[in-house]
Amino acid sequence: MAFDFLIRTERDMVEAVNVFGFVPLFENSIPGFSIEEHVAREAWFGSGQDGVWEWKGPVIRDSGCAYGKFFERKAAFVSAEWFPDLANWRRDGYDFDSRYEEGLASREDKYLYDLLSERVPIISKQLKKLGDYHKGGRKGFDQSIMRLQSQCYVTISDFVYLTDKSGQQYGWGVGEYTTPERRFGEAFTKNVYAREPEESLERIVKHLKTLLPRADEKAIRRFLK
């Protein structure tokens, strides 16, 4: 297997996620390992038609994958098949409450996680309002939500378009946050801690070495940190 494809349509993106399992959206430290580097120009920049930015929500829904800032603070799609292993590795075997009790998560992350997990799915605009994240209010939303995604406690389940008074959509899609436990249910909860975290890591490394035969194993492991 080699990570070699061309994205021209929404269906192409869905198939890439289903076939490869790990599909970063943006160029990253592993050359050639992203949609950005394998997309037709008109699908990346638009040209008056829907493209990658409009397809993200449908791809998440149609493939049933996890989406979020999982690698190098950049967004990626991870299939439902592989996400439990990634979450097990990143969580190091801890659910969030256990992580916090062990002193491995901050109070700010705990505050946001509890706020979010009790109301999922919820769009970022509503989450910020409920959490009092605004100028003069609580700080650190962007940092906390990124950490929670990187640790695989939070994912983006869709992109919602806001509407004006006339019911017309405007702007870019707004991320709708959820937890993997809510999104995937028992398919996730029964499998996420089924292996030792290091075993999950080795499974992912082996898969990515097959997927990326020209990539150095050290580069793959750095990417997965």
Distance between the termini: 23 Å
Number of domains: 1
The computed structural class is alpha+beta
Total helical segments: 12
Coarse shape: globular
Can you give me a brief rundown of this structure?
The protein is an alpha+beta fold. Helix content is 46%, strand content 16%.
Pick out its properties.
225 residues, alpha+beta, 3-stranded antiparallel beta sheet, 12 helices, globular
Explained architecture:
The chain has 225 residues and is an alpha+beta fold. The chain has a three-stranded antiparallel sheet. The protein has a three-stranded antiparallel sheet with strand order 4-6-5. The longest helix is centred in the last third of the chain and has 15 residues. The radius of gyration is 18 Å and the shape is globular. The mean pLDDT is 94.
List the topology elements.
Blueprint: H1 10-20, E1 22-24, H2 41-45, H3 52-63, E2 66-71, E3 74-78, H4 83-91, H5 96-101, H6 107-117, E4 122-123, H7 124-130, H8 141-150, E5 155-163, E6 169-178, H9 180-184, H10 186-189, H11 197-211, H12 217-224
Antiparallel strand pairs: 1-3, 2-3, 4-6, 5-6
Helix pairs in contact: 1-3, 4-11, 6-8, 11-12
